[in-house]
């Protein structure tokens, strides 16, 4: 069991945290980076004058900067390997919905819907079943050349053998505790739950266009209670 506070916690992934239905997250930092940066991207669809957008952007940017500032041991070495891998395979994460963040640069995964139509790309028909080494080599040659010109894909990519994405190193217990203390919303898993809810809320706000004027205004003389607890007449 992982009780609260986190000073007594275990960071073993997928074990109970001590809160009902909440299990230890294996990689909370990249997950939070993905949620916060995606939330900020979605908020751009709201008008600049929207009070909801302004307040949510300020809070999300504040938490994003906190998470960015805490880096796990071995992060710099991992970042170099990740950048080198993405230079060689720029489309490695496309369509996988994987979020990563390297310094100030980031990849949020491909949220685009891929059209189910032929886009002019060549169609190569290959026989079913296991092929010999010679047949596989011929398949690569057919796919990498058109009218004598070579393509940009490597043999491994063409044969569906893309390299595995290396996850970011895990945070140490003291670093998780630091994030929890600075964000101030309980366990890091609770912080993730809140960030997921905030991301969904942006879509709800967009759907209902909360920045627009009310269709029916409140009648004059109505007594309302403000968030501070004070009452006033409108």
Largest beta sheet: strand ordering: 1-2
The radius of gyration computed from the alpha-carbon positions, rounded to a whole number of angstroms, is 25 Å
Question: Count the helices. How many?
Answer: 7
Order of helices and strands: HHHEEHEEHHHEE
Give a short account of the largest sheet: 2 strands, antiparallel
Overall form: extended
Beta strands, count: 6
Oligomer: single chain
End-to-end separation in angstroms reads: 51 Å
Can you tell me the residue ranges where pLDDT is under 50 for at least 5 consecutive residues? 1-5, 103-129, 137-151
Please estimate the helix content: 40-55%
- Indicate the proportion of strand residues: 5-15%
Give a verbal description of the structure.
- This protein is mainly α and 234 residues long.
- It has helices at 28-43, 51-69, 75-88, 133-144, 155-158, 173-183, 188-208, and strands spanning 100-102, 105-107, 145-146, 149-150, 223-225, 231-233.
- Strands 1-2 form a two-stranded antiparallel sheet.
- The protein has 7 helices and 6 strands, in the order H-H-H-E-E-H-E-E-H-H-H-E-E.
- It starts with 27 loop residues before the first helix and ends with a strand.
- A hairpin with a 5-residue loop joins strand 5 and strand 6 (231-233).
